[in-house]
Structure formats: structure tokens, C-alpha cells
């Protein structure tokens, strides 16, 4: 089958090359992965996502791995598996989680990654880790690193890749707290020349660009929107959608934009930071986040611009950003329909909502235990 041809290609073309650290991937046997994960023991489970469960494991050479085991077997899953393996196999960047190998035996489909000892950004922002672990410098490094990883997908990979599921659980942290953007399972390769691909909506509540949620138009700018939400989450420590009461929900953009417009940056900052942040950087992160997470896709920056802005390389561009109509609502007439539109998209995907919330609760539970 086509899947097999792809696997074989990847393997043989790499085999003759001099082994570089984590530069090649290989086929794992099911037996080997059973042994590594103690037969996919519940105690080894790191969490569960849209694809299935992820288990921690240790290989015979002592190296630690994370094994993603598809839960439901279907033609659709087979296709998504093939997509993920093919994309991951070809993408290499310091801020993108590399594929270590795969296993396709009988009905089993498994993907093997390096284990990320500092787990996901989600577990640090909303889990039970000590607040000291995620100080401001680390947050800046994670913001810039993950932006660079996505920039690589959008602008340097051939063909360009849209991630389509950028969120805090898909930003993993290595031993140096360097961001490793993971999960390309929803990504689709964009054919050269095409500006967007129309496809079924898949992603995570709270991070979905309105045009993607409503019209199913996936493009790089949808990733930019999701990245903006991720940045806001990173700076504020708040979830993309906060439950205020059983019937009331608040979007992060709807809450943060008015505060930023009034220059009340410190009120947006994560209280866990205890005021320990670089003011200029916080301001920069919040402005960039909101400019990314605005409703009109054509007004969002590219990821190349996002990296430049986050690094603060160009004073002129930062000044332009501050003067953007988004932050000067009196000039432009009114605020973006930001919060209402984000809420519309929430309604639109209400079916996925409960499943997602359940998943979040489970993840919280898994990380806390
Ligand atoms: N290589 C890894 N090292 C450490 N933890 C990992 C690794 N891969 C995944 N995880 C963790 O395992 C859990 C499940 O991951 P998974 O990717 O299946 O779900 P998700 O990220 O919540 O959702 P999605 O399916 O949309 O990606 C998450 O908490 C994730 O951070
Ligand atoms: Mg994931």
C-alpha cells in the first residue's frame, strides 16, 4: 500500500547517511514497544488526545520515548496516520518535535517520539507544576521558539505546511525548556500556488480562527490566529475560554483586548509571575498576540513578521504595531467584533466542546497524579 511505500522510502534513504543525532527514523516492532511501555500499562499513560493515547516508555538502550497509539481503527485513521508520519518524517527544526519512528503491525498504528521530560506547556500553565518553573525568561524563549517552529512549517518546508492544531498541549518542552511544537496529524500539505484548502473543521475549541470554524477555510493565517491565543495564554496563564459560571464563558481576546487598549498590561500578566517580568517584553507579547488573534485574516501578520516582532528587532515595526487601529478603537470606530465572533465560533462547534472539556479534565487529572 501507499503507506508502506512511503515508510520504505524514508528508511532506505536515511540508512546510508552517517548517523546524526535524532536525524533518522526507523521502524519499531510491536514487541519492542510493548516491552518499552510495560504492555501499554495505564501507569505509563501520559495523556489522551484526538488520535488516541500517549505512553511513556524506555528502550533497551535506556532512552526515553513517547508512543502515540491510535485508538480507533478506520480508513480515516489510517489516512491521518499516513499524513502525520509523512510530514513528521520530512520536517526537521530545533523547535519541531521530530519523529523517532513508527510501528504498523496488524491493526496497530503507533508513532514514536522522543519523550519530552518537561511535558507540555499546558501542564505548566494550568497543571500543578511549581510556578517558578515557568518564569518570564522561559516564557519568552517558548514564545519565540514555537513561533520559529511554525515559521519553518509555513515558510521553509516544501511544500508549505499548515499545522491546524496549535495549542498549549501541542507545545512540548525539552530538558532545557526549549519549545517543541508537536502533532502534525491534522496538517495538510498545501499544493503550490493554492492560498487555502477547504476542508472539514478540526482543531481545538478556543484556538480556532472564526473563518476556519465557520467556513472551513484553513490557511497559514488560521495558525497565526491560534498562535495569538497561545501567546495570550502564555502571558496571562488563563485558558482560551474561561468558564465564569455554568452559563457564562469568556474568551481570552474579549477579556484582554480592552485592557491592552487602556495600557493595563500588568493586569493581563499571569499572577503566578508575581510581577517578575520585563515590562517591554510583556507589552510586546500582548500586542503581537492580539494582532495575531484578530478576526480579519488579511490583517493578521505572517509568522515571519511575528518572530521579528517578538524578538523586538525593529523599533519602527513595534511603533507601528502600537498605533494599529485595533488598539485605538476610538480612531477606528469600534473594537473588532472580536469577542462576539469568537463566541459565534464557539456555538458553531458546540458538539466538540463537551468532548474537549472532558479531555482537558482528564489531562489535568493525569498531570496532577
Ligand atoms: N513526546 C512527548 N513527551 C511528553 N509528553 C507528550 C509527548 N507527546 C504527547 N505528550 C503528552 O501526552 C498528552 C496526549 O497528547 P496528544 O497529542 O495525544 O493529545 P493532545 O495534544 O491533548 O490533543 P491532540 O490530539 O489535538 O494533539 C498531552 O498532554 C501531551 O502533552
Ligand atoms: Mg497533541
TrEMBL record:
**Listed Basic and acidic residues bias regions:** 359-369
Positions of the UniProt region annotated as Disordered: 322-369
Instruction: Give all residue intervals belonging to the Protein kinase domain.
Output: 40-318
| GO MF, any single term | ATP binding
Top-level division of the source organism's lineage: Eukaryota
Any matching Pfam family: PK_Tyr_Ser-Thr
Instruction: Locate the residues binding ATP.
Output: 68
Entry keywords, A to Z: ATP-binding, Kinase, Nucleotide-binding, Serine/threonine-protein kinase, Transferase
- Polar residues composition-biased segments: 322-343
The entry's family comment says: Belongs to the protein kinase superfamily.
Q: Per its record, how is this protein called by name?
A: PTI1-like tyrosine-protein kinase At3g15890
Source organism of this protein record: Nelumbo nucifera
Amino acid at each position: 500500500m501507499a503507506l508502506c511505500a512511503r515508510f520504505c522510502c524514508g528508511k532506505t534513504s536515511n540508512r546510508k547517511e552517517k548517523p546524526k543525532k535524532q536525524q533518522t527514523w526507523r521502524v519499531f516492532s510491536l514487541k519492542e514497544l510493548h516491552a518499552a511501555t510495560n504492555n501499554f500499562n495505564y501507569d505509563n499513560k501520559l495523556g489522551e488526545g484526538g488520535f488516541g493515547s500517549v505512553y511513556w516508555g524506555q528502550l533497551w538502550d535506556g532512552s526515553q520515548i513517547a508512543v502515540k497509539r491510535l485508538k480507533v481503527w478506520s480508513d480515516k485513521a489510517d489516512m491521518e496516520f499516513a499524513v502525520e508520519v509523512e510530514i513528521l518524517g520530512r520536517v526537521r527544526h530545533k523547535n519541531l518535535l521530530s519523529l523517532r519512528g513508527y510501528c504498523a503491525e496488524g491493526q496497530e498504528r503507533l508513532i514514536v517520539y522522543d519523550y519530552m521530560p518537561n511535558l507540555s506547556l499546558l501542564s505548566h500553565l494550568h497543571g500543578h507544576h511549581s510556578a517558578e518553573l515557568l518564569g518570564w525568561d522561559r516564557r519568552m524563549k517558548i514564545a519565540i521558539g514555537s513561533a520559529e517552529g511554525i515559521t519553518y512549517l509555513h515558510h521553509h518546508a516544501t511544500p508549505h505546511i499548515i499545522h491546524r492544531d496549535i495549542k498549549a498541549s501541542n507545545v512540548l518542552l525539552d530538558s532545557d525548556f526549549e519549545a517543541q511544537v508537536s502533532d502534525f496529524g491534522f496538517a495538510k500539505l498545501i499544493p503550490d500556488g493554492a492560498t487555502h484548502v477547504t476542508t472539514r473543521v478540526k482543531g481545538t475549541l478556543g484556538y480556532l480562527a472564526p473563518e476556519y470554524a465557520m467556513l472551513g477555510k484553513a490557511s497559514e493565517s488560521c495558525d497565526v490566529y491560534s498562535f495569538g491565543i497561545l501567546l495570550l495564554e502564555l502571558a496571562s496563564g488563563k485558558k482560551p475560554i474561561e468558564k465564569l459560571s455554568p452559563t457564562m464563558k469568556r474568551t481570552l481576546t474579549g477579556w484582554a483586548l480592552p485592557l491592552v487598549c487602556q495600557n493595563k498590561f500588568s493586569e493581563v500578566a499571569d499572577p503566578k509571575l508575581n510581577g517578575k517580568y520585563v515590562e517591554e517584553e510583556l507589552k510586546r507579547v500582548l500586542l503581537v498576540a492580539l494582532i495575531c488573534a484578530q478576526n480579519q485574516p488579511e490583517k493578521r501578520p505572517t509568522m515571519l513578521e511575528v518572530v521579528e516582532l517578538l524578538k523586538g528587532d525593529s523599533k519602527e515595526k513595534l511603533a507601528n504595531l502600537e498605533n494599529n487601529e485595533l488598539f485605538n478603537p476610538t480612531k477606528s470606530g469600534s473594537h473588532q467584533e472580536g469577542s462576539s465572533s469568537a463566541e459565534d465560533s464557539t456555538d458553531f462547534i458546540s458538539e466538540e466542546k463537551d468532548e474537549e472539556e472532558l479531555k482537558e479534565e482528564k489531562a489535568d487529572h493525569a498531570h496532577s497524579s
